[in-house]
Amino acid sequence: MTETVLVTGGAGYIGSHTALALLEAGHRVVVIDNLINSRPGALAEVEDLTGHPIVFVEGDATDEKLVEHTIRENAVTAVIHMAALKAVGESVEKPLDYYGNNLESAIATLAAMRTCDVWKFVFSSSATVYGDPESNPIPETAAIGAASPYGRTKEMIEMIIEDVAASDDRWQITSLRYFNPIGAHESGRIAESPIGKPNNLMPMVMDVAAGRREKVLVYGNDWPTIDGTGVRDYIHVMDLVEGHVAALEQMTDGSGYQVFNLGQGRGTSVLELIAAVEEATGFAINYEIVGRRAGDIAECVADPRLANEQLGWKTRRTTADACRDSWNSQ
Q1: How far apart are CA 309 and CA 168, in angstroms?
Q2: Catalytic residues
Q3: Per the confidence metrics, is the pTM higher than 0.90?
Q4: 4-182+235-263 CATH
Q5: Are residues 260 and 307 in contact, defined by beta-carbon separation less than 8 angstroms?
Q6: 130, 137 contact by CB (below 8 A)
Q7: Residue ranges per domain, the chain?
Q8: Which of 2, 87, 191, 226 is the most buried (most CB within 10 A)?
Q9: N- to C-terminal Cα separation, the chain
């Protein structure tokens, strides 16, 4: 079934790749984005790559009336909600900004959907909801307890949408807990391109490889991991967004509320990722070990079996592929 999908935050890194995957799967795409941390040029590239148009609305998903108007105007049938502030470190410094923006945008979007009789909702959640896990890999049944304000906003929104789903059996809601997206579309034409100072590891490493930055700061080498640096489950962004298409297409009447991890199911340390980028680029990456960062944890690796089994989805690309595609995008 062809859907008309509203992607809030759809001009961003993951949003633009999601728009591409949706269009390639035969769906129509509408985007709302305030362009605080994204560029509308990414959507023009997606249109060019796919040969299909995107309806773009510049605005904020916290504006319920704008979301409602956009849904009605474009006969939207499903929503993928990605609009959020998303840096763990910044959330520790600016918790009110994060709680205000992230919760308000989710609530406004859900309220607009209800008003417009639209019931399919995919939420861009995060592995940060698990906090510092008791063990790895982490199943969806693991205890929840985010370690940062950013993670807590995702945790709170999951609680809200679970209650919303229980309130009316017309709702079909899926939370996708992302692990660590990296990489770019194989064309190199859309990629992670943060406004201002990057907060994520891969764009920092790419900046060093491209000569835009002197060194990468590695936050701690005394974690209880393979080499003392933080271990994360890095997932290629194209695998991640294909998980969104699978989640949307799997929805059926009465499916209620579902939660899935999206990750490779294997961990890579910071130093291992740096080495993989060196292999992909042929350049040595200068780095400096500094103190641990507030809100960080030692290790976070997905158990993706539920998504493998129930969504028919699994990762098809490696960390090496992600490093190659990130470098290609430079």
Answers
A1: 27
A2: 150
A3: yes
A4: 3.40.50.720
A5: yes
A6: no
A7: 4-182+235-263
A8: 191
A9: 36
Span 207-234, average pLDDT: 96
How wide is the angle at C-alpha 301 spanned by C-alphas 230 and 296, nearest 5°? 35
CA distances in angstroms from 99 to 85, 96, 213, listed in the order given: 9, 5, 31
Nearest residue to 116 (alpha-carbon basis) of 70, 72, 82: 72
- In one-letter notation, the amino acid at residue 196 is G
Average pLDDT rounded to a whole number, residues 224-228 = 97
Helix (H) or strand (E) holding 14: helix 13-24
Pairing state between β 231-232 and 268-269: antiparallel
Report residue 245 as tokens: 């298409």
What pLDDT does residue 89 have?
A: 82
**Greatest CA separation found in the chain?**
55
- The confidence band for 275, taking pLDDT boundaries of 50, 70 and 90, is very high
What whole-number distance in Å separates Cα of residue 262 and Cα of residue 303? 8
Could you write out the DSSP letters of every residue in 221-252? S-SSSSSSS-EE-EEEHHHHHHHHHHHHHH--
What is the residue whose two structure tokens read 């896990």? 133
Closest by CA position to 302, among listed 239, 242, 260, 247: 260
Predicted pLDDT of residue 39:
85
